[in-house]
């Protein structure tokens, strides 16, 4: 069995005695797109630095394909797009990629082919001969992604990869991420754009104030805490008591009750209990939730507790 692309256990970091990240445990498998979410200052960049061995953890350990990330060898198969980067803008895009291919240990004979391929993958095939100075913001961001891909990595870590892109550009990058997944590359995606995470990620971690609030599938995160509107007759105190036993009651109306359930199974149990108590169940409508709803709800609950 191949080792996970990322395997982090109990990672923590303190700066000047203040914990900015606590007990981060996660794995990312080859061919998986993993989303990393959290409000500003949550500790995302710190976590990425620890995962990549660019900062030392105060506690815990991270391994990349089985190699401790504190060893430079671990980074050999990793492509990284930092959130902010500056390129030598007197270079052409192709020259910059040649340079990064060299840094990634690509042989001299393979370099030109790799650079051309990376440029093509981000839609800059025709523009590689131009100086970076003349690139638009979106083109520079595409070039940053090409730079992360030029060494043919098995793990790609992208920090806000589409912040400067228009909707077409975002879609291109989404397609690229899906293609990488299809090739068995692991992608770790740090993004504020929740709709983007929602569209491409298999699993996610949510952190706030250095604490990990959730790690798991995206579906389970969105499904948990889902609201259901139950149309039922009659709505009487006995029914409300039965419902309140199995779910959080949000609102009671003349002919319906709105509840929140924590899993699909509890929704099913609730419907069964209503029918078993011989009430007339007219409709049972789960409200669709976006990742944004789930995210805001999770952060709010954690901060209140
Ligand atoms: P995010 O990427 O989620 O916005 P960061 O990881 O950048 O969050 O920051 C998390 C917290 O750690 C912030 O409060 C930040 O001020 C603090 N921090 C980050 N780097 C350092 C550092 N080198 N020294 C001291 N504090 C830091």
In short:
The radius of gyration is 24 Å and the shape is elongated. It contains ten helices and 14 strands.
What are the salient characteristics of this protein?
305 residues; Rossmann fold; Alpha-Beta Plaits; 6-stranded mixed sheet; 37% helix; 29% strand
Secondary structure topology:
Blueprint: E1 6-15, E2 18-28, E3 33-37, H1 44-51, E4 59-64, E5 67-68, E6 78-81, H2 93-103, H3 108-121, H4 137-149, E7 155-159, H5 167-182, E8 186-190, H6 194-200, E9 203-208, E10 211-217, H7 218-223, E11 226-233, H8 237-246, E12 248-252, E13 256-261, H9 264-276, E14 280-286, H10 291-304
Parallel strand pairs: 3-8, 3-9, 6-7, 7-8
Antiparallel strand pairs: 1-2, 1-4, 4-5, 9-10, 11-13, 11-14, 12-13
Helix pairs in contact: 2-3, 3-4, 8-9
The structure holds adenosine-5'-diphosphate.
* Uncertain ranges: none
- Strands, total number: 14
Number of helices: 10
Read across the widest sheet, the strand sequence of neighbours is 6-7-8-3-9-10
Shape: elongated
| Rg, alpha carbons | 24 Å
Ligand species: adenosine-5'-diphosphate
- Total of domains: 2
**Main β-sheet: number of strands, strand sense, barrel status?**
6 strands, mixed
Residue share in helices? 25-40%
Strand content: 25-35%
- The secondary-structure element order is EEEHEEEHHHEHEHEEHEHEEHEH
CATH class of the largest domain: Alpha Beta
Could you give the distance between the termini? 40 Å
């Amino acid at each position: 069995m191949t080792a996970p692309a990322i395997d982090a256990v109990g990672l923590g970091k303190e700066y000047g005695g203040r914990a900015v990240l606590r007990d981060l445990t996660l794995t990312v498998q080859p061919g998986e797109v993993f989303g990393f979410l959290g409000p500003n200052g949550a500790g995302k960049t710190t976590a990425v630095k620890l995962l990549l061995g660019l900062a030392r953890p105060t506690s815990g350990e991270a391994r990349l394909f089985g190699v401790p990330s504190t060893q430079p060898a671990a980074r050999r198969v990793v492509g990284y797009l930092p959130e902010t980067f500056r390129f030598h803008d007197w270079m052409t895009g192709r020259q910059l990629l040649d340079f990064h291919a060299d840094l990634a240990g690509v042989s001299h004979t393979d370099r030109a082919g790799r650079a051309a391929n990376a440029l093509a993958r981000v839609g800059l095939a025709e523009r590689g001969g131009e100086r970076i100075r003349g690139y638009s913001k979106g083109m520079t961001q595409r070039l940053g992604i090409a730079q992360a891909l030029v060494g043919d990595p098995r793990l790609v870590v992208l920090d806000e990869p589409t912040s400067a892109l228009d909707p077409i550009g975002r879609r291109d990058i989404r397609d690229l991420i899906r293609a990488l997944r299809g090739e068995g590359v692991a992608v770790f995606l740090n993004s504020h754009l929740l709709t983007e995470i929602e569209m491409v990620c298999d699993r996610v971690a949510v952190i706030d104030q250095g604490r990990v609030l959730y790690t798991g599938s995206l579906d389970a995160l969105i499904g948990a805490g889902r609201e259901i509107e139950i149309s039922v007759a009659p709505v009487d105190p006995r029914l409300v008591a039965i419902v309140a036993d199995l779910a959080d009651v949000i609102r009671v109306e003349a002919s319906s009750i709105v509840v929140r359930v924590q899993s699909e199974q509890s929704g099913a149990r609730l419907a069964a209990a209503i029918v078993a108590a011989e009430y007339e169940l007219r409709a049972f409508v789960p409200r669709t939730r976006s990742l944004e709803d789930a995210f805001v709800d999770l952060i709010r609950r954690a901060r209140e507790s």
